Amino acid sequence: MKRNSRLSLALHTLSHMAGSPDRMRTSGDIAEHAGTNPVVVRRVLGKLREAGLLTSEKGHAGGWRLARKPQDITLADVYLALDERMVATDETSDASACSVEHALHERVSGVLKEIEESLVQKLSETSIAEVRGV
Amino acid sequence: MKRNSRLSLALHTLSHMAGSPDRMRTSGDIAEHAGTNPVVVRRVLGKLREAGLLTSEKGHAGGWRLARKPQDITLADVYLALDERMVATDETSDASACSVEHALHERVSGVLKEIEESLVQKLSETSIAEVRGV
DNA sequence: ACCATCCGTAACTTTTCTGGTTGCATTAGT
DNA sequence: ACTAATGCAACCAGAAAAGTTACGGATGGT
Questions:
Q1: Which of A7, A75, A114, B78 maximizes the CB count within 10 A of its CB?
Q2: Which residues of chain A are within 8 Å of residue B87 when distances are taken between CB atoms?
Q3: For all residues of chain A together, what is the average pLDDT?
């Protein structure tokens, strides 16, 4: 796997689960399906569980299941759950002595933050059910 | 610097250059300004030159200058010049035997590509001049 | 009671990405 | 000639991420 694998893995898995929402799936199944490792799957899906998108059960008949209906899970939910900010810069303390520079830095950061917000807005317009489509 | 440093560096540099578009700046100046290395600056700015956003001149009085007016350079131009796709997945050959799986994979890829396009669209609505702002 | 199965988590390794650095050829002005 | 700049290639170092192994805890079947 390469870049953006987490978002991609999450999306693929959720879309797949949306097919039969009641079926319980193990991280092993999902991993094999996605061509990766059960632990990696649990790591990513754990984030989604924290965000309330999935539930997991331990033990013999344990596994993973959607916590909501597919149409109630948006791409924004997934994106935010993974806690990856794609365009927004980190809030590095601007060490520039010049105040004009500082102001410019603020402007650039602000613009990037706006772009990030618009991305989330766009993501919120599509649900997992719609990804599955048709 | 951390993630997105290239985009951030490019944006900051262009915004700064937009202040006095006729002034020639060396990679050394820019690097010192950005707290990084001249070679790194040339790497990033080289991409922008390839995309026609900047011009560079070798030799004694050489350096970098905007190739267009700041209002004619959009954030999308910069983003695309850097050739970093943030949300779109790479076109990995889908090795899934099942055709249903393949179709789902295509759907997810398609959705991500749409998101990417909408991001670029959003970026194209803001110019460097506007970033500089006010 | 026992056992197989599955999640949760930690620790470690390997790979990949990226910025930083050095060196050198080339170009251009003085 | 000399100086100062880009262009480019090669390499190093550090961080980030995936992959792997291992083990503890929970759960259900036998």
A1: A75
A2: 4, 7, 86, 119
A3: 91
